[in-house]
Amino acid sequence: MIKITVSIDVANLKQAETFYIDALGCKKVREQGTNMAILSTENCDIYLQEKEAGTKPFVAGEVTRDYKRHWTPVHLDFLTENVDEVVKKILQHGGQHEGGESGDWGAIAYCADPFGNGFCIINE
Predict the structure, then answer these.
(1) CA 101 – CA 91 distance, rounded (Å)
(2) Could you tell me if 41 and 20 are in contact, meaning their C-beta atoms sit under 8 angstroms apart?
(3) How far apart are CA 51 and CA 72, in angstroms?
(4) Banded model confidence at residue 1, pLDDT cuts 50, 70, 90
């Protein structure tokens, strides 16, 4: 059996822990060394890894870590019963709200953490 976890590179581990716990309701499971914290949601573990800006994410790569807002085709969706309430917490903890949509199906908010990592908040 395969279990999926998510790893998120951040420039400041303590700030990231506060954001993901207080804004998104994650729970801290444990620390792993001085550069990693493991958080958990209801069904997924999130590994926050402190990595210095400007370092290479892999040896053969030409790009370096950059914590300005960026886009990637792979992102997280956090499901909740109250999108507006979660967006309010995201903004209070240094995250960004970049718009959204709503309809008969519910609502979605496009957001980013303080390190430029994008994610969505979606009605459950």
Answers:
(1) 18
(2) no
(3) 18
(4) confident
For residue 109, the tally of other CB atoms under 10 A from its CB is 22
Residues found in the chain: 124
State the alpha helices, DSSP H only, in the chain.
13-18, 83-92
Structure-block tokens of residue 32: 């792993």
Rounded to whole angstroms, the Cα distance separating 64 from 52 reads 10
What is the layout of strands, in order, in the sheet containing 5-10? Answer: 5-10, 45-50, 36-40, 27-31
Q: Which residue has the tokens 């998120």?
A: 8
Which token pair is 81? Answer: 């019963």
Lowest average pLDDT, out of 37-46, 64-73, 75-84, 86-95, goes to 64-73
Q: What is the pTM for the complete model shown?
A: 0.91
Contact 66, 52 (CB under 8 A): no
- Percent of the chain exceeding pLDDT 90 equals 84
24: tokens are 């998104």
